[in-house]
Amino acid sequence: MKHYTSIHDIDDMGNWIEEAKALKANPLKHVELGRNKTIGLLFFNSSLRTRLSTQKAALNLGMNPIVMNVSGDAWGIEFGDGTVMNGTTAEHIKEAAAVVSQYCDIIAVRAFPTLTDKVKDESEQVLKSFVKYASVPIVNMESATGHPLQGLTDALTISEHAQVSKPKVVLSWAPHTKALPHAVANSFVQAMQKMDVEFVIANPEGYDLNPEITGDTPIFHNQKEAFKDADFVYTKNWSSYESYGKVIKKDSDWMITKDEIGKAKFLHCLPVRRNVVVEDAVLDSDSSLVIQQANNRTYAAQLVLKKLLENL
Ligand SMILES: NCCC[C@H](NC(=O)CCC(=O)O)C(=O)O
Ligand SMILES: NC(=O)OP(=O)(O)O
């Protein structure tokens, strides 16, 4: 594997999950693999988990992480080709990515979508420009359309907590005050499609995800119906895909409650807004796996970095 930019880079989900479990059981086993290797983490957006767990993963492999908040601290980067740079951007991605490649053996990038320009977002301009102009492997730490470190984490967490051989997993939309990206939901869908689970999606009308991603996965517009006999309820808000980036429904009736999820385990990528997305009674109960899930971010990232290091 040359880069890790999407769930499609996972060639065998079952094997990857087993390897991630082995790393979790013995996190320092490969501490020599990354010795004297540097990973640069570049953030165009905020982060708590990705920023810390990816550094932790690198440290467990003996790597040296260096971190930069690009949008706040670096020169404004130009991504357009042939642009006359007489505006606000001060250096081109051609130089920026090539320069960071001089200092780093792996580069990881977080760059969220605009949610106003669907064509631009789907072109994955920032992530793909790093792939094109850097000379080292690129890791996606959440791009416009995907969050594959999260998707791998979620697959690992469901595998660890499954009580039956083919659990029922529901991805449910929930309300939020802001327009949020589709990246987490997209990667979760792609990860579940690679697992031996009964997988369905629940969202209000007008909130169907990109049909090219959801494919044959059943979509329910009735949350109660979708939650019937669920073993796992994975919750996430996203803005409309059809009316791109718009918030067309904020009603609290889709908020996740204890009554509704019943015996199902609750998952969320975090950060989560309490009593908007999900009520306290769920997050504060044994039904919630969100902290175990966040812990698994380290081992998912560690597996990805290990595979990239082995291929350097
Ligand atoms: N990396 C995990 C999720 C990041 C982002 N959430 C957010 O922006 C929530 C912000 C807020 O609640 O204000 C998203 O949905 O893609
Ligand atoms: N789940 C996740 O990616 O969290 P952060 O946005 O805090 O990194």
Automatic annotation (TrEMBL):
Its EC number is 2.1.3.11. Keywords: Amino-acid biosynthesis, Arginine biosynthesis, Transferase. It catalyses: N(2)-succinyl-L-ornithine + carbamoyl phosphate = N(2)-succinyl-L-citrulline + phosphate + H(+). Residues 184-305 form the Aspartate/ornithine carbamoyltransferase Asp/Orn-binding domain. GO terms for molecular function: amino acid binding; ornithine carbamoyltransferase activity. GO terms for biological process: citrulline biosynthetic process; L-arginine biosynthetic process via ornithine. It holds the Pfam family OTCace. Gene3D superfamilies: Aspartate/ornithine carbamoyltransferase. Pathway: Amino-acid biosynthesis; L-arginine biosynthesis. Carbamoyl phosphate binds at S47, L48, R49, T50, W75, R110, H147, P148, L149, Q150, C269, L270, R297. The keyword Disulfide bond does not apply. N(2)-succinyl-L-ornithine binds at E142, H176, K236, R273. The keyword Chloroplast does not apply. Catalyzes the transfer of the carbamoyl group from carbamoyl phosphate to the delta-amino group of N(2)-succinyl-L-ornithine to produce N(2)-succinyl-L-citrulline. Is essential for arginine biosynthesis. This is N-succinylornithine carbamoyltransferase. It comes from Hyunsoonleella aquatilis. The lineage of its organism: Bacteria, Pseudomonadati, Bacteroidota, Flavobacteriia, Flavobacteriales. The gene is argF'.
